[in-house]
């Protein structure tokens, strides 16, 4: 869940010039300046939600775009994200709303280290009058369930930024349901318009922090079934994950990359296998196709294109005993060629 941006103007009455000024401070890693800008908005009467959603979250998406296109380096992205984390903390310190609506737990899917969007959601929900426990990035399912049994919250707000983490998200949702606690999902990892949230058993999905507040206020999770989720039609995705290392090795043999790039390619193939497993879990090959197109875009922006067709073909051969996996991979190869 994050903020939204329409044309050249941020939503909530905050002009794009404010977002540009904030981005300028992030570009210079000017922590004091960024904090000062955000607190100045609060002092001028701008609500906490607008500052977090329409400035910080909008800027964070632009940071991601700049990294994707290669105009910002990884260190620049990390430095800017750290500044925004400090800003969120400073804004959160100004929240005075007393908890009166119930208790929710906010967490990121295990393996998901992008926690800023979830933190923004947590603070916006807290500003709306909920008691919020923010568990942070990469929360193991067993730890989350243990905490749910101890604290008995009304709902879990689960953040997933990367669709490659959907299999783990499904396991976390299943664990929460078994503990009797419904899940409100958020983040692009659940697909465009949250199309994969229901497939993994979530009670609802919201695109933004404001959506999270609306969904909680409407008590969308009330009466939502808990307990074990319906079984998936087959467990081919489990078999694919079991063959993950084998598939990576097969792809490396097929590509035969220089030693200095071998680790990066191995990591990329491992993520591809995760995307394939996720696409099988939610029964939607578009998940894998979108991942392959994104991977191609990332590599092209950095001056080189990985031999995606070779990698996808080697994955298909390594998984020849799994027909649905092969079908998804063939569709992805066609999409990569067309792209």
From TrEMBL:
Question: What GO terms describe the biological role, i.e. biological process, of this protein?
Answer: homocysteine metabolic process; tetrahydrofolate metabolic process
Q: Name one GO cellular component term.
A: cytosol
Instruction: Give any GO molecular function from the UniProt entry.
Output: metal ion binding
Q: What is the lineage of its organism?
A: Bacteria, Bacillati, Actinomycetota, Actinomycetes, Micromonosporales
| Coiled coil segments of this chain | none
- Source domain of life: Bacteria
UniProt keywords (A-Z) are: Cobalt, Metal-binding
Domain (B12-binding) ranges:
101-223
Pfam families, A to Z: B12-binding (PF02310), B12-binding_2 (PF02607)
The molecule here is called Cobalamin B12-binding domain-containing protein
């Amino acid at each position: 869940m994050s903020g939204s941006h329409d044309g050249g103007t941020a939503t909530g009455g905050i002009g794009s010039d404010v977002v540009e000024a904030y981005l300028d401070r992030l570009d210079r890693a000017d922590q004091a300046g960024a904090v000062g800008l955000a607190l100045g908005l609060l002092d001028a009467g701008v609500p906490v939600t607008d500052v977090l959603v329409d400035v910080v979250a909008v800027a964070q998406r632009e940071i991601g775009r700049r990294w994707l296109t290669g105009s910002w380096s990884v260190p620049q992205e990390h430095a800017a994200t750290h500044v925004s984390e400090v800003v969120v903390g400073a804004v959160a310190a100004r929240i005075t709303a007393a908890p009166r609506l119930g208790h929710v737990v906010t967490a990121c899917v295990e393996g998901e280290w992008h926690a800023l969007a979830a933190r923004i959601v947590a603070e916006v929900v807290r500003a709306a009058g909920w008691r919020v426990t923010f568990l942070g990035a990469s929360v193991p399912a067993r730890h989350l369930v243990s905490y749910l049994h101890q604290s008995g919250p009304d709902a879990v707000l689960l953040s997933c930024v990367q669709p490659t983490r959907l299999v783990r998200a499904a396991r976390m949702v299943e664990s929460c349901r078994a503990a009797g606690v419904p899940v409100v999902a958020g983040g692009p990892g659940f697909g465009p318009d949250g199309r994969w949230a229901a497939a993994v058993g979530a009670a609802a999905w919201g695109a933004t922090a404001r959506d999270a507040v609306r969904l909680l206020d409407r008590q969308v999770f009330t009466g939502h079934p808990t307990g074990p989720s319906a079984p998936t039609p087959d467990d081919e995705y489990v078999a694919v994950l079991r063959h993950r290392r084998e598939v990576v090795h097969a792809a490396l043999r097929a590509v035969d990359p220089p030693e200095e790039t071998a680790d990066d390619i191995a990591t990329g193939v491992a993520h591809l296998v995760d995307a394939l497993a996720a696409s099988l879990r939610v029964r939607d090959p578009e998940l894998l196709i979108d991942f392959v197109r994104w991977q191609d875009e990332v590599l092209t922006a950095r001056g080189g294109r990985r031999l995606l067709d070779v990698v996808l073909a080697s994955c298909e051969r390594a998984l020849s005993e799994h027909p649905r996996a092969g079908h998804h991979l063939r569709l992805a190869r066609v999409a990569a060629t067309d792209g």
